[in-house]
UniProtKB/TrEMBL annotation:
Record InterPro entries: PA14/GLEYA (IPR037524), PA14_dom (IPR011658)
Name the UniProt record assigns to this protein: PA14 domain-containing protein
Annotated ranges, domain PA14: 322-475
Top-level taxon of the source organism: Bacteria
Record SMART domains: PA14
Length: 480
């Protein structure tokens, strides 16, 4: 601690009137009345100044002109007004006032019977010195109200303590708090978040440089205006900031004693991702640290822009319920030829689902003149988009299909049996689809003679959708 001791020794300057006696560390005191002793400040106690991971301890000493004939006390108070005045009038340069809460000192110095000196200790929070590295941090203690007839000369009662932080610390000594490394943190589909049934939780790490200390708190602020500014400037593109109701964020975290990091949780529910499927926007947050009860927030790495990519939603496999209305249905009468040879359809309409059989179909298919479709010798084509509700291996069925069948997904025929046979169990196909993606879908039906039916069904066993079922209207869209 030799360097620290030296630094604090030369950093102690005592106010004597208007600095008329600058050699003293504590101002010279007028001799008290003959009944009392003369009290003199000796400044810090050489060799006893210490600095640890949290505090700098500055012992100081007063001496008497003779042995105390009785025990007594000398009062101590902070004298911030003097320091503020010196800084404002230029008496102290490159200096800041030590915050009152950052220095602890005894209210009194106890002088025991039969001694000619006494000591006190001022304890300064190291974090304040780190925060103001490169400046002088100053506080003043005022001696007052000595007991048992002892007196302090008027106007000469202040100990001025000037700590030159650059002599005590270097940049690498600072206990900086950094937030996820600062800069921009982009979250894409991968291992950097936790997936749950309700949504996704993104852990953001606050790190503490250098050796950890006792427990402390730090707050997290969500700066909405910053995102608006970045979007306006073009620094961020294709992004939005979510409404407060659409996410949760830890706004206060606690570092436990001995901890070098703490975790902030940013949680976004799956329905918020689902509502963004069409817009396909990134979610952006401008987060910063504030109101730390210890240590120093890094000037640049204490804030971070978090950008959540829509690909994160690929880890969501809760069923998406769409708002579809069905498929475009085109019916061709008196022909069984493939319904894609350029002929005009007999009737065009929207069918909510493909699940037809019995007397109601195709009798209810009529053209604009009110004429019904022929019961035999006709063809049908349904087209549009299918919104995959989950991720997995889809099994599509045209096993209840009288007569011939075809099924296309994104232009590829996965079932192709356009014959005069019906209800064949092998008319099924498996294809991997992604949740939330709309796929082009087209189904063909051929009716020869006799009975007729058409049921387009599916299941996704890998996602828990088991048992054949008709594709519901909500997942079908009549997109041309």
């Amino acid at each position: 601690m030799k360097k620290i001791i030296y630094t604090l020794l030369i950093g102690l300057t005592i106010i004597v009137g208007a600095y008329s006696c600058k050699e003293s560390q504590i101002e010279d005191l007028k001799l008290p009345d003959p009944a009392g002793k003369s009290i003199t400040g000796e400044g810090i106690v050489v060799g006893n100044v210490t600095m640890d991971n949290q505090f700098v301890k500055v012992p100081f000493k007063i001496s008497l002109s003779g042995m105390a004939e009785e025990a007594f006390q000398v009062g101590l108070t902070l004298n911030n007004d003097t320091v503020t005045q010196l800084i404002n009038n230029g008496g102290l340069t490159n200096a800041v006032l030590m915050p009152s809460a950052a220095v602890e000192y005894p209210n009194v110095i106890n002088v025991t019977y039969g001694t000619d000196n006494a000591e006190g200790i001022a304890i300064v929070r190291r974090s304040v010195l780190e925060r103001y590295l490169g400046k002088k941090v100053v506080f003043a203690l005022k001696l007052s109200a000595p007991g048992k007839g002892n007196k302090i000369a008027s106007g000469k009662s202040t100990i001025l303590v000037i700590i030159n932080t650059s002599d005590l610390l270097k940049q690498s000594d600072i206990h900086y708090l950094t937030f996820q490394g600062g800069g921009t943190y982009t979250v894409v589909q991968g291992p950097n978040y936790q997936v749950g049934p309700a949504g996704v939780t993104i852990p953001l790490i606050i790190s503490l440089d250098n050796a950890p200390t006792t427990a402390f708190n730090v707050k997290i602020k969500d700066n909405v205006d910053t995102i608006a500014t970045l979007l306006s400037a073009g620094t961020l593109t294709n992004a939005i900031h979510l409404a407060a109701k659409d996410f949760t964020l830890d706004t206060l975290v606690r570092f436990n004693t001995g901890a070098s990091s703490a975790t902030v949780r940013l949680s976004i529910p799956w329905p918020v991702f689902d509502a963004n499927i069409v817009a396909n926007k990134k979610f952006a947050f401008a987060l910063s640290l504030s109101d730390n009860t210890n240590h120093v927030i890094h000037p640049t790495k204490g804030k971070v822009i978090v950008v959540v990519d829509p690909s994160v939603n690929l880890d969501n496999n809760s069923p998406i319920i769409g708002n579809g209305t069905g498929l475009i249905a085109k019916y061709y009468t008196n022909t069984q030829l493939a319904p894609d040879d350029g002929r005009e359809p007999f009737a065009t309409r929207i069918d909510g689902t493909i699940e037809f059989s019995g007397d109601g179909w195709p009798d209810n298919v009529k053209n604009t003149a009110g004429v019904s479709l022929s019961r035999d010798n006709f063809a049908s084509k349904w087209s549009g988009e299918f919104l995959a509700p989950v991720r997995g291996d889809y099994i599509f069925y045209q096993t209840r299909w009288d007569d011939g069948s075809r099924l296309y997904i994104n232009g590829k025929a996965i079932i192709d049996d356009y014959t005069t046979q019906w209800d064949k169990p092998e008319r099924k196909a498996t294809i991997r689809l992604e949740r939330g993606i709309k796929y082009r879908i087209e189904a063909h039906h051929r009716e020869n003679v006799g009975g007729q039916q058409a049921y387009l069904e599916y299941e996704v066993p890998s996602a828990g959708i088991t048992g054949k079922r008709a594709i519901p209207r909500t997942q079908l869209f009549p997109t041309p």
